[in-house]
Specification:
alpha+beta, 7 helices, single chain, seven-stranded antiparallel sheet, three-stranded antiparallel sheet, 275 residues
């Protein structure tokens, strides 16, 4: 990208290495029960005005998977991303980016693998997990994102992504695959279940969903809060957007979950009378 004339509105700017996370008020701190979208003030005012542009609707059964993929990956954002380490049955290590959380009881995470209709080749990570039933997951953070991203290369199975990334192996306790030492959070996992996914009215397997049981978690002391949870400002995790784009966490705000007993009378008193 040419930066000779300085950044424009849509061009990339130099990365700001300073930690950027801060806690703010929610967008509408004076929101009231049943108010819906506060369209009299920003940001609701502009959001409401854009309704006039209407909606475009896709019937996903009418478009090809090649078209569905960029559409959905730009819609479902931000998506968590982490490095999955696995080892083949004959000992070949593999490192690649995947991941999403599923449940806390039992502690489960998920990894989804697409099957290539062009090559018919399965992902090495998937084959390793199904064969050995072990893997690790290491959360990706800003300081080593380039090294983490290079592991997504479509290299042959005999190429070691650990080597080309320069990342450091940290020995696991309960499973064979190592986790990434540069990561502030590493999970040791065992295969909990796997599901082969086929399109409706088809027997062709196009995706495999893997559920992993988290056996052990390694978390840097430096990112923990006094209460024992992880500080997002110190973790500096990244997420995936559409295309080749990643995102950093910039701001956060808290919205408490209201107890029913607190809002019950207000809800009932404002309900329309039945005729």
């Amino acid at each position: 990208m040419d930066r000779s004339d300085g950044p424009t509105e849509n061009s990339a700017r130099p990365f700001n290495s300073a930690a950027s996370f801060r806690v703010t008020d929610p967008p509408n701190p004076n929101w009231q029960l049943k108010q819906g979208l506060p369209y009299q003030v920003e940001p609701g005012k502009s959001w409401k005005a854009e309704e006039e542009k209407g909606w475009k609707t896709w019937n996903l059964s009418d478009i090809s998977p090649r078209e569905v993929y960029p559409l959905l990956t730009s819609c479902v954002v931000p998506r968590p991303i982490a490095l999955v380490s696995s080892t083949s049955s004959d000992g070949m290590p593999n490192l690649a980016p995947y991941f999403s959380m599923v449940a806390h009881n039992p502690p489960l995470l998920s990894i989804s693998f697409s099957h290539s209709p062009r090559t018919g080749k399965s992902k090495d990570t998937k084959e390793n997990i199904l064969a050995t039933k072990q893997f690790t997951v290491s959360i990706m953070s800003e300081p080593f994102i380039e090294a983490a991203n290079i592991t997504s290369v479509d290299a042959p199975a005999d190429i070691d992504e650990w080597d080309i990334s320069g990342l450091t192996r940290s020995t696991s306790i309960d499973v064979r695959p190592p986790w990434v030492k540069e990561s502030a959070i590493g999970f040791e996992c065992e295969l909990f279940h796997s599901y082969e996914i086929c399109p409706p009215n088809s027997g062709e397997v196009t995706n495999t969903l893997v559920l992993g049981l988290i056996k052990r978690a390694h978390i840097r002391e430096s990112v923990l809060t006094a209460s024992g949870t992880v500080d997002p400002a110190k973790l500096r995790a990244v997420s995936r957007l559409g295309g080749d784009m990643y995102a950093r966490i910039g701001e956060g705000f808290e919205l408490s979950r209201p107890p029913w007993k607190v809002i019950r009378d207000q809800v009932i008193s404002s309900a329309p009378e039945s005729k």
